């Protein structure tokens, strides 16, 4: 009797073990490395094209892709792509399902291409010409929920004047983020995809544009200058999910605005893009447009005339008697953004009762309500972890 009971228990344990193996076999994992240096490649997009199954490698190049091989044709392929590397395909029929190790996937670096050099004798130069959209209090938003996998993106078409344009910074507004923090990548695409959807990635620097959103962040500004990003016409800019920190479910909400050009989303790495709305995400890009000297002078006169009619407030950002540089100051009404200079000084257009928000990494946000005075100093405190 005891023997039969022991055999029954062994069969149960064996069945559980088989179930565990069957479950584990759905996890295709590995490490993506540089074929030459053998160093890990972070944030590689990995997935089955247009299938909604994808992920992103982590900082050590490690990845887990959950799939069931028998649901796909033997000829189906997994695509690996990363900035600065040749794309790589592997047939699902040939992938290894291992349990205690991470087989290497090697990607070959692409040949470095120099950016196009523009030479002109027409007396052309760059002028400030910002593009994109802002939310001025409308109850419009876009969001990610927990059905967005790593590599999922939310993008918006930016309508521009034709001409060579350099992208300097990218700003968006967070309305809600329950996660401790999110690691995101900024991507800039040509609209040469199917039906004008995102196509060619215009970031030719070989460097990922990474930003982190913390729980209390509201206005996020990403410096694009180090990446030498140029466009010549309309483009699409997107935010891509790379990592979620904390135990809370993903629930990022970003402000949007009523514009009829449209937003696009994909749910995972290598997934297909879909147009989700006529709304545009409130993505705003500070940029410079190359124009003739005649147009540049006309623009500068117009800007000078506008500034002469504007009321501005100036002041210093201070921490314990020390002036703080590189503090971002946002007028909450107009959404205009300026940065304090090396002496901690700032100047920004305002009207009475405007609220200014001051933020800098490592410091608590501060706010000031504008009265009748032409000066307004802000005091900031170091964040206590």
Characterization of the model:
The strands form 6 sheets. Strands 8, 9, 10, 12, 15, 16, 18, 21 and 22 form a 9-stranded antiparallel β-sheet that branches. Strands 14-13-17-11-19-20 form a 6-stranded antiparallel β-sheet, with no helix packed on it. A 4-stranded antiparallel β-sheet has the order 3-2-5-6, with no helix packed on it. It has 2 helices and 30 strands. The protein is globular and about 70 Å long. The relative contact order is 0.14. The protein has 3 domains: 106 residues, Immunoglobulin-like (Sandwich), CATH 2.60.40.1120; 166 residues, Jelly Rolls; 70 residues, Immunoglobulins (Immunoglobulin-like), CATH 2.60.40.10. The chain is mainly β.
What tags apply to this protein structure?
Jelly Rolls; 3 domains; six-stranded antiparallel sheet; Immunoglobulin-like; 385 residues; mainly beta
Structure summary:
This protein has 385 residues and is mostly beta strands. The chain has helices at residues 2-24, 293-309; strands at residues 27-34, 45-48, 53-56, 62-66, 77-81, 88-91, 104-107, 125-128, 131-132, 141-143, 153-158, 165-176, 181-189, 209-214, 219-223, 229-231, 235-245, 253-257, 263-266, 274-277, 280-281, 284-291, 312-319, 322-323, 328-331, 337-339, 345-349, 355-359, 366-369, 378-379. 29% of the residues are buried.
Q: What is this structure's SSE topology?
A:
Blueprint lengths: L1 H23 L2 E8 L10 E4 L4 E4 L5 E5 L10 E5 L6 E4 L12 E4 L17 E4 L2 E2 L8 E3 L9 E6 L6 E12 L4 E9 L19 E6 L4 E5 L5 E3 L3 E11 L7 E5 L5 E4 L7 E4 L2 E2 L2 E8 L1 H17 L2 E8 L2 E2 L4 E4 L5 E3 L5 E5 L5 E5 L6 E4 L8 E2 L6
Parallel strand pairs: 1-7, 23-30
Antiparallel strand pairs: 1-4, 2-3, 2-5, 5-6, 8-22, 9-22, 10-18, 11-17, 11-19, 12-15, 12-16, 12-18, 12-22, 13-14, 13-17, 18-21, 19-20, 23-24, 23-27, 25-26, 25-28, 28-29
